[in-house]
Amino acid sequence: MATTADTLPNGTGPLNDGKEDSLRPDDLSEMLAAGTKDVHEKAENTQFVKDFLKGRIRKELFKLGAVALYYTYTAMEEEIERNKDHPHFAPLYFPSELHRHEALARDLEYFYGPEWQSLISCSQATQHYVDRIHQVGHEDPVLLVAHAYTRYMGDLSGGQVLKKVAQRALKLPPTGEGLEFYQFDAIDSAKAFKQLYRSRMNELELDVMTKKMLVEEAVKAFQFNMEVFEELEKIGETFQEEVSNAGMPVHGAMGGDISKCPYYSAKMAATGGTTYVGQLAMAVMRHPTGQVLIATWFAALAGLAAWYLM
Fold first, then answer.
1. What is the pLDDT of residues 206-255, one digit of tens each?
2. Euclidean distance between the first and final Cα of the chain, in Å?
3. How far is Cα 49 from Cα 304, in angstroms, rounded to an integer?
4. The CA-based dihedral angle spanning residues 216, 199, 43, 258, taken in that order and rounded to the nearest 10 degrees
5. Beta carbons of 124 and 192 less than 8 angstroms apart
6. How many Cα atoms within 13 Å fall on the side-chain side of residue 228?
7. Is 306 in contact with 263 (CB distance < 8 Å)?
8. 13 vs 34: CA distance, rounded Å
9. What top-level class would CATH report for the domain 28-290?
10. pTM score, two decimals?
11. What DSSP element (H or E) covers 272?
């Protein structure tokens, strides 16, 4: 069942439980936005991001980016499933609405063919990210909140912008093949769902120290995403392949509208802007062998996506 702007995903009640979402400086979403501001700005000023915003996409890098996203989301969603009943994560458990690894598997099959699993491997930078996610899931599950928030909220924000850029630049089918990662069929209103998610996150019973730990973990997520970007950029330097150009303007040509930036802050992502997941996708686009993966690797940055993300 699709999530509407009026009801919770399980149909049990109104979206905001009858409450207005009045943000305070000590709300987790606000702390994340403020605490990741510097690393966010660093991520959005990487060459990879600038190229992506210009619509300059290497198909092979796009594919490699998709591969990186597949391993990252598979790890994150394995740990989410393991900890779905944890009191500090259970309110944020929305598998049918958010989980991405199956969609990424279909994208990879589209780009690599039916034997795609035997044709891909986890890169060194991506493995570092994956290892951290598994460590968090086993040792301190509350930190999964930082990874899930920065990636998924970016997917629902900047990821949608990146989808259009990639579809146009890579000349992908208008029916969505190769871009299922960006498709959230169980969510009717991304804006309403992000509002719900942020509200649920802010209502978690966490002390100040734990919230600070979550901010630190979100910063780490950004750093992992940037490592993936750098890795993809280096791979891209070894290719002479022509890049597709979607014609999207860079920051300076956006007329001050930074909402078009896929690395827009977590706060803006929660209210309809872009985030970290976008950063992953962007790095992906530069990798020559990952032609399939679009600019949001990612979060999306995390976000990012990411970075969120990265």
1. 999 999 999 999 999 989 988 998 898 888 888 765 555 554 444 444 44
2. 29
3. 12
4. -150
5. no
6. 51
7. yes
8. 31
9. mainly alpha
10. 0.75
11. none
